[in-house]
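Researcher: Let's try something more involved. This one mixes different molecule types, so please make sure each is placed in the same coordinate frame as the others.
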Amino acid sequence: MRPHLLAAAAAAALLGPMGDAHARTVRWSASGDPNTMDPHSQNLGTVTMVLQQIYDALIMRDRNLGLQPGLATAWRQVEPTRWRFELRRGVTFHDGSVFNADDVVFSIQRALAPTSNYGIFVDTVAEVVRVDDHTVEVVTKIPDPILPNKFASVYIMDREWSEANNVRQPQNTRAREETHTVRNTNGTGAYRLSIREPDVRTVLVRNDDWWGWKEPGNDGNIAEIVYRPITSDATRVAALLSGEVDFVLDPPLQDLDRLRRAPGVTVLEGPEVRTIFFAMDVKRDELLYSSVKGRNPFKDLRVRQALYHAIDIEAIRSRVMRGNAIVTGTLFPPQVNGYSKEQDVRLPFNPDRARALLAEAGYPQGFEVTLDCPNNRYINDEQICQAVAAMWTRVGVTTRLNAMPLANFFPKIQREDTSIYLLGWGVPTLDALYSIQSLLASKDGEPGNGIWNYGNYSNARVDALTRTIKNEGDPERRTAAIHEVLRIYREDVPHIPLHHQMIPWAMRSNLSIPHMANNQPYWRWAKMN
Amino acid sequence: MFAFIVSRLLQAIPVMLTVSLISFSMFAYVGDPVAIMLGQDYTEAQRAALVRELGLDRPFYVQFVVFLQNAAQGEFGLSYRLARPVADLILERMPATLELSFTAACLALVVGVPMGVYTGLYRDSWLSRFFLTISLIGVSLPTFLIGILLILVFAVILGVLPSFGRGETVAIGWWTTGFLTASGLKALILPSITLGMFQMTLIMRLVRSEMLEVLRTDYIKFARARGLSNRAVHFGHALKNTLVPVITITGLQLGAIIAFAIVTETVFQWPGMGLLFIQAVANADIPIMAAYLLLIALLFVVINLIVDLLYYAVDPRLRGGLRAAGGR
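Model: All components are placed in one shared frame. Result:
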């Protein structure tokens, strides 16, 4: 490994000064290290937070997570199952080779390989065709209106480089030898990889040849990015306070107050594309963990509404979450394509109405149930469950809380060994289909349908609408279908939604960077004084 | 002599086999590596394919035998998390752990022995009581707390020492060292104090009790009767005779220091084998866990062997009856 590093360090030294008199270095940290530099191997936030600085996609995200031209300057659906992409000219990879249509064809095919973890972003692709050097057409198996949203997550590699280094396929864990892409990159992006020591440090230097520096908005002044993971929460906070790092992506919540009070430190809070809700077993004839025998109270809409009415959401927002939550009555936050303001309405907090509904449903004395809850996955997850359990108990549904670490929680709910549970759901595609398909569609064996629907909610109309949302090419009809699902979601109460999570970032006060709802720092937009 | 070494090495084999068997049977409880590797979106078919590819669908004993066969050839496969050969990863991290452990052990000796001598000689002085109180803290405070407190004082409040990492390192062949740069040496201070604290107090208390014991013996009284200086009596006669058990304990503790560097490395983000192991546990990275546990078992076996050989060299009585040494 040494010769590689020395060579890389020597190269960095040669490229070093960049002519910028005040070359600014940002040192940042989070708890986890990216486990690979392969752009199609691991679809994890810790990997993409580094790779999206190095690799570009055909279509990129803007500061509001909207779509903007990337390596493609224009795209349109020429036929229901055919998308055409016009490629940007004059773009070069970090090793100097020229970007062209072959690289796009190659990269999309690579993302389709069995060892790729990015299959969800290319699942509808049937064929990729090179029209000419600067035009590519993508043929889909079914009409796919959200292909551009998905392609914003598919990074483009150089075909020649990949073939020369024998990385035509994403890395394979079964292999005996290390794949070249595990520690090496060759992208077109704003920063190039200079030093990669897994678990120790990852150093990126500014690529002055990046096409995007000429585009408006990309006005960052960071010349070098040094990433060093720090696993221990207390040490990470200490490193920020002592000025050894400039930016911490995941400050621990219990230290936020201290960080806010510390001189020279800023805490930036913004919404995350993640919604916290309760889901319940609505299929079994008798709940696994309840005092009610012979029937399942959650099958009754009035019981679900009663639990909903019993929640004092304002107390949760202001006390449990200390104001860091966006209260919601719907399935996903406004950043997601298909959001509807009209359907984002909660059943009001009304304990009397809750008791009346329970009595109407045949439970005037209430009943007992066990709530399963993770205690280290979402922000204040266990405290939320404690508060809600008390609220439900107050209206007569005596709730026992079963809080556990995520390593135990997820296997338990995945076995469907639960009656009611708390879940948080993020939407990487930023399109409604991802949530609707995974959480609300019936488990009918179709890939992706109902894979996280552990309460087994099943509604024929929702299933029909899911099919429409998957295939409908007309944006208006598709949006109408999404809105109808959201209306059913509001009226039929398959979940009891709580809020969209907010995520804090902590940094030294001389650093400014836009807060992103996908929890990824985009250093090309960062400025340091 | 040769027969002795061979018999000890043969005894080591069942130890290693037992360790690997126990660690292997624990891997069933560390979580599901496949779920972690696949992420949030996967199909049943993908999952089944990966399980088959990793050989996790084979019965336990088959996996174990295959592991042993590969391990015997020094082949530990690729880390699930980092997709790099396990042997490379461990070799890369080993210098960091060994340098930290070595520094911590030296620190424990250099500070622990004089403190032990002092408290043995001046049992009732206030400084002795102070040392003993300090040693009580060293024994009773958990390592991570000591580490965090040191970080708080020296990195956050005083801002004189780094709170994490190894500083700049210099590569000598495959070995990386932090001994040759100022930042590397500074980075060593807090972790080595944290790691060596327990051993330091242990050595201090050991030396103290040995000194108290030795000072009561006839030959010390005789030395005093001969009119030797205090200095000659304390250091020439008393301390020398306390050192045999101290060296033994230090040797054995070196293994413990290396093995338990895990906590210190986690607190200080020290890029050694312990941190690698902890991250492997969090990600159910079985190849790394298996190799690391085997390595630590081997380390203890080797250290025990060396200590036994030292006994053999030091104590002439053992040369006649080797079985006494073997039964230690």
